[in-house]
Design goal:
This protein folds into 3 domains: about 150 residues, NAD(P)-binding Rossmann-like Domain (Rossmann fold), CATH 3.40.50.720; about 160 residues, 2-Layer Sandwich (Dihydrodipicolinate Reductase, domain 2); about 80 residues, 2-Layer Sandwich (Alpha-Beta Plaits). Strand 1, helix 1 and strand 2 form a beta-alpha-beta unit. The chain is α/β, with parallel strands linked by helices. The strands form 2 sheets. Strands 7, 8, 9, 10, 11, 12, 13, 14, 15, 16, 17 and 18 form a 12-stranded mixed beta sheet that branches. The chain is elongated, with a radius of gyration of 24 Å.
């Protein structure tokens, strides 16, 4: 087999970038034998050359990312620097100059994916991004290729390992949210400022990409309703366990064929223990796909980390390198359907509501009437008393977010309601 040499220009040499460069060196012979393509790391853009001495040959390193993009000897650009505006500029320049790009930048694609895919389409070259969502888990390629002719109904995903680790520790070890978060930070799962993870912003960026691919429409991060786990309490975890549920932060994308709308959201849910996602522990990710003909599919693995993410990047790089060798191009991402994003108020789900109420006659009847007046049907109700107060736990049938919000607003104004402790969405049927 005749080898075709493909020279790589890598932008960024942090945890992922360093793991990728090592992996290319380790797997070079194997890749060449299997694909006929010899990968060579020709340029690496770093912030500080001195910090990388010994790990990269001096003649390969540069602090000028634009130099990497413009180097005529570079055949393929691998963007691993993070951020949004500068990577956007660099990738657009690479595509305009006829160089295909592989990126792991979820934030960039969540905000500017349509623009970048259009630029790749215009140039007739590849822009691949498997590692942008769920690290080393093969997800994007199955959605883009294996399920290309398959109508997808819904995608549910645990796509943030930090929050899943926190919720696991709260559930299995009885840790408080604060202690579990501190543990995640000590292990490097969470940043010093964990906002992007715990408030659902990281998951929102990822699910916008998933929804765009799954439903063939342009979804950006700002389209995604996001709600994090910072308000989840030990009491929420306890009641979920009592009812046979696990609390998870889910990214949900679903398509309503009747009205042609796509719903995209991130929020905590009580997920029934029978669902495969309920058993996903610690910092692992998993994505559950519901398709019309293929049925239910699940993708599971480590969603972050240098080595798993580098593996996904390398898979894209080999695919693009093969296209370069064969003078071909892969699937395009610009054929978007015109689909509206459903407002969160119209999205239907079940809810669990915990209320602290006055423990006296007629309270339950008044609360039930309030739910009925707003069109929300109650599935189950449980009351436990303590002193002069009582805690009421209600699980509803399917209701819209708008109906539930109106119900909660009315409840808050009632003299008999002392506090609404929590409102959590429910996925799956309550056990009999």
């Amino acid at each position: 087999m005749t080898e075709h040499r493909v020279r790589l220009g890598v932008i960024g040499h942090g945890t992922v970038g360093a793991a990728f460069v090592r992996l290319v060196k380790q797997q070079s012979d194997t890749i060449a034998a299997r694909s006929g393509v010899r990968l060579e790391v020709a340029r690496v853009a770093v912030r500080n050359i001195d910090a990388h001495k010994g790990s990269i040959a001096a003649e390969v390193m540069t602090t000028d990312a634009e130099f990497v993009v413009n180097d005529p000897t570079v055949d393929l650009v691998v963007e691993l620097m993070g951020g949004v505006e500068l990577p956007r500029k660099l990738i657009l320049a690479a595509l305009k100059s006829g160089k295909p790009v592989v990126t792991a930048n979820k934030a960039l694609l969540a905000h500017h994916g349509a623009e970048l895919f259009a630029a790749a389409d215009d140039a007739g070259i590849d822009l691949l991004f498997e590692a942008a969502v769920c690290g080393g888990i093969p997800l994007i390629r199955p959605l883009r290729e294996s399920l290309r002719g398959e109508p997808i109904k819904r995608v549910l995903g645990i796509v943030n390992g930090t929050t899943n680790y926190i919720l696991t520790k709260m559930s299995e070890e009885g840790q408080s949210y604060a202690d579990a978060l501190a543990g995640a930070q000590s292990l490097g799962y969470a940043e010093a400022d964990p906002t992007a993870d715990v408030e659902g912003l990281d998951a929102a960026a990822k699910v916008s990409i998933i929804a765009s691919i799954a439903f063939g429409c342009n979804v950006v991060a700002s389209d995604v309703y996001s709600e994090g786990i910072s308000k989840i309490s030990a009491a929420d975890i306890a009641i979920a366990k009592r009812l046979g549920y696990a609390v998870k932060l889910l990214a949900i994308a679903e398509y309503d064929k009747l009205n042609g709308e796509v719903s995209v959201r991130v929020h905590p849910v009580m997920l029934h223990k029978s669902h495969p996602l309920a058993s996903v522990r610690d910092a692992y990710n998993a994505v559950f796909v519901e398709a019309e003909s293929a049925g239910s599919l699940m993708f599971y693995g480590r969603g972050a980390g240098g080595a798993p993410t580098a593996s996904a990047i390398l898979g894209d790089v080999v695919a693009v390198a093969r296209h370069i060798a064969l003078n071909s191009v892969g699937q395009r991402e610009t054929d978007y359907a015109d689909r509206d994003i459903a407002p969160i108020e119209s999205t239907k789900t079940k809810f669990l509501i915990r209320l602290e109420v006055a423990d006296k006659a007629g309270v339950l009847a008044a609360i039930a009437t309030t739910f009925a007046n707003h069109g929300v049907s109650i599935q189950t109700v449980n009351q436990s008393g303590r002193n002069s107060d009582a805690e009421v736990t209600i699980v509803t049938h399917l209701a819209t977010e708008g109906e539930l919000k109106a119900t909660v607003a009315t409840l808050k104004a009632m003299d008999i309601v002392n506090n609404i402790s929590s409102v959590i969405r429910v996925e799956g049927a309550l056990p009999a």
